[in-house]
Design goal:
The protein is of the alpha/beta class. It has a domain of about 180 residues: Rossmann fold. It is about 45% helix and about 15% strand. It has 13 helices and nine strands. A seven-stranded parallel sheet has the order 3-2-1-4-5-6-8, with helices on both faces. α1 crosses α8 and α4 packs parallel to α5.
């Protein structure tokens, strides 16, 4: 079995991928986890995998950590202000250290212009994909749609009290998937062959609007939930008045407008095929959240 290194291993996605690799029979000594420090790596000590210390901001640390790696799971950085330089470091270090295959977690989008509502996220992914393709490295690009896990946050934690989903997302749809299923499909790629230089769309096989979600929650809870799609100005004013932090308003607005423009209304069977089963539907997920 090839040697696999997981970056972002102390995060949710990276940790789940490691769990799935172990569940699927990969020996712990064949898996390495990249952590920014020994302190950060403490949470991984109990699974007996190899720990490598490296920071996306420190090129030399990455070169040292990546040596001996055959397959690298490159989980995109969280710091949007530093992401471009960090990602360039990862791609160049992968090349210099002799990594055989890089699997990169990118982002689903239709609009690839700088003026996209999700431009603050998409541009770094576009450049990273370009660098990987130009590097000569074998690579696999995973274009992840929104995590279904985030939907309750978008809907709001008081939806059952207010009876309203209030987002400027129009009638367009989104094909979100569970983080755990993205992680399992990613693990399946890492332990099998034939994925070199391919792009996979990680989406659900069905897409849903917020109107659909309001209807589903109504059916699940027996409470009438309505969906209101305000203008972006009305939305930002309402959230500002409610004391929501500016950064959170920006994220909610960006994703909502992107959905209204159809950026996330992409369905594919890639995730289904890599899982070997249908992904969890949004309605099933909403039942786990709102049926109690």
């Amino acid at each position: 079995m090839s040697k696999i290194l997981i970056t972002g291993a102390t995060g949710l996605l990276g940790g789940l991928v490691i769990d799935f690799l172990l569940q699927k029979g990969i020996e712990a000594n064949e898996i390495s986890a990249l952590a920014r420090s020994e302190e950060k790596a403490k949470t991984l000590k109990n699974v007996n995998i190899n720990i490598k210390v490296g920071d996306y901001n420190d090129y030399d640390s990455l070169v040292a950590a990546f040596k001996g790696t055959e397959k690298l799971l490159f989980i995109s950085g969280e710091d949007l202000t530093a992401r471009l330089s960090q990602h360039e470091n990862v791609v160049k270090a992968s090349k210099e250290s002799g990594v055989k295959h890089v699997v990169y977690t990118s982002f689903q989008r239709r609009n690839e212009t700088e003026t996209s509502p999700l431009g603050f996220l998409a541009q770094s992914h576009l450049l990273t994909e370009k660098w990987l393709k130009e590097s000569g490295l074998n690579h696999t690009i995973l274009k992840n749609n929104l995590y279904m896990d985030y939907i309750p946050s978008f809907i709001g934690d008081r939806v059952l009290e207010t009876g309203t989903i209030y987002l400027p997302a129009g009638k367009r749809k989104i094909s979100a998937g569970l983080r755990t299923e993205y992680a399992e499909a990613t693990a399946n790629i890492l332990i099998s062959e034939g994925h070199e230089n391919k792009v996979y769309d990680f989406t659900n096989i069905e897409a849903y609007s917020y109107g659909d979600m309001a209807k589903s929650i109504s059916e699940i809870t027996g409470k009438t939930i309505q969906y209101i799609s305000p203008s972006i100005n009305e939305f930002t004013q309402a959230l500002t008045h409610a004391g929501v932090p500016t950064e959170s308003i920006g994220v909610l607005s960006g994703f909502s407008v992107a959905q209204e423009q159809g950026d996330l209304d992409v369905t594919s069977t890639d995730l289904k095929n890599l899982l070997g089963r249908n992904p969890t539907t949004l309605k099933t997920f909403l039942k786990t959240v709102y049926s109690s």
